[in-house]
Write a structure and sequence with these properties.
By secondary structure, the protein is an alpha+beta fold. The chain has one domain: Translation Initiation Factor IF3 (2-Layer Sandwich), CATH 3.30.110.60. Helices cover about 40% and strands about 20% of the residues.
Amino acid sequence: MLTSKQRAYLRSMANGIDTIFHVGKSGITPELTESFNTALEAREIVKANVLDNNLLDVREVATTIAERTRADVVQVIGNRFVLYRKSKKPVIELPK
């Protein structure tokens, strides 16, 4: 569970990163979930975009993927969302 200070720090970091995932009409597949797992382990913070042809709500997609990957939802804004999960070899040092 992230504190508000940690969440604000991660939101500021997310401004500078590119969107690496696009969730389309096929929705949340096991392959997509595995890709999120791999990316979270390598980067710790991931930004994704939910395309207009998806039938699910952006917040619904973010929380579902976060539950399946054991990550925290940092931010949901517009059609984009940001997830964070501490990896085995931490790259990001969060404020206390």
